[in-house]
């Protein structure tokens, strides 16, 4: 039986309070888990996000310097229960294996120092089988990656593959140069990147492309001046950032845009104080957590990326985050042997 605190990652509630005296971060509460709510529709509507939710929640706790708030062994057991013989991971036990779920699984196992458990208890052949699954999703003609056996492909899956394979030290299993060529083909006249060649520039897709290029050590291909200008224009008068022109601000773009600016050394091109105030304004001051914008319901997704954005902004007492991986920097450095 998986501890209900593990399932509660999907409803992680974190409260960040600005004190007039010391500006301390405080954890307010972790919401009741979902195990006892299997008769409620919300439980089933979020099942496809279960494994991703563990990553969002655990990453947020690590950034808050509370890495042990979730039970380590039960976290590992749940992750491994989502694995297929192919090496890939599904969103929850019994779900089809998918690139995005597999990436989250690798990130979580890395954060809890559980890759040895993958070798000992995982289905198939441990890390090698996970790497084989992801490598098998690369389109060897174009360099891009499919999300699963059904053939959808865009830069999210390419980035995810390079992210997870580098953490596993298995990048040699894929054609990195071909992947870089595909990303270069996704570049647009405005300096941004789309989901595939010819697609509109979008902040989240820019993050995936820059993250992949950074992991591949090919940021030299980026027009940093032009891209920095496009990204800095995502800031609205209220301090928040949007994903593309004419859209409203959203806390999650505090990560997608800011991390991209960090990778090209241009975070000083935006109003950092204004962004900090926007993120802080989206808190639920009673129950904790961050929402997409002020006044809306909080959730673990926006809590994770809001905290990651605050970490990049240098907010006090938060663990430094790696802009390439959206994981604690000290963990990625250890995993990569840096």
From TrEMBL:
**Could you say which EC number(s) this protein's record lists?**
2.5.1.60
A single GO BP annotation from the record?
Answer: protein localization to membrane
Identify which top EC class this enzyme belongs to.
transferase
Q: What does this protein do?
A: Catalyzes the transfer of a geranylgeranyl moiety from geranylgeranyl diphosphate to both cysteines of proteins with the C-terminal sequence -XXCC, -XCXC and -CCXX.
According to its UniProt entry, this protein's organism is: Akanthomyces muscarius (Entomopathogenic fungus)
Note describing how the cofactor binds: Binds 1 zinc ion per subunit.
The chemistry this enzyme catalyses reads: geranylgeranyl diphosphate + L-cysteinyl-[protein] = S-geranylgeranyl-L-cysteinyl-[protein] + diphosphate
What keywords does the record list, in alphabetical order? Metal-binding, Prenyltransferase, Repeat, Signal, Transferase, Zinc
Record keyword Endoplasmic reticulum present: no
Gene Ontology MF terms in the entry: metal ion binding; Rab geranylgeranyltransferase activity
- Cofactor(s) in the UniProt record: Zn(2+)
- Where's the Prenyltransferase alpha-alpha toroid domain? 42-327
- Which range is the signal sequence, renumbered to this chain? 1-21
Pfam families, per database record: Prenyltrans (PF00432)
Q: Provide the family line.
A: Belongs to the protein prenyltransferase subunit beta family.
Oligomeric and partner information: Heterodimer of an alpha and a beta subunit.
List, alphabetically, the GO terms of the cellular component aspect: Rab-protein geranylgeranyltransferase complex
This one is known as Geranylgeranyl transferase type-2 subunit beta
Q: Which InterPro entries match?
A: PGGT1B-like, Prenyltrans, Ptb1, Terpenoid_cyclase/PrenylTrfase
Matching entries from PANTHER family are given as: GERANYLGERANYL TRANSFERASE TYPE BETA SUBUNIT, GERANYLGERANYL TRANSFERASE TYPE-2 SUBUNIT BETA
Identify the SUPFAM superfamilies for this entry. Terpenoid cyclases/Protein prenyltransferases (SSF48239)
